[in-house]
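S.,

Sequence below, as promised.
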Amino acid sequence: MKYTADGDLRKFDVHCSILFTDLPLLQRPAAAKAAGFEAVEFWWPFGENPVPGDKEVDEFVTAISDAGVQLIGLNFIDLVPAARGLVSVPGREAEFRDNIDVTVGIAERLGCRSLNALYGNRIA
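The prediction came back faster than expected:
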């Protein structure tokens, strides 16, 4: 169980990067709502692009808003399926730093207060 930012108990949310994968990513929030969920989570929804364009970000934000669900968890950029977050990759620090502003901006627009930076498998 999780609690919302204002302390209300939320029994379940759905991780839309794992479930509803038969649908395009932008249709998953509406599918979650149709299935009775009020909240969603996502891994980084823009592949390995740390700084997607405004149009892509706006489409993602709109899909969640229009579905009437709350984004309660979002990952910073990760390198799925490489099993490691970008935080663990030497030489890619600038990409992660660039991603911070975009991820925080999405979170602010949607009222999301839980962001996850994957460390993953450490590279020596």
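The beta strands are 2-3, 9-10, 14-15, 39-42, 70-75, 115-116.

Coffee later?
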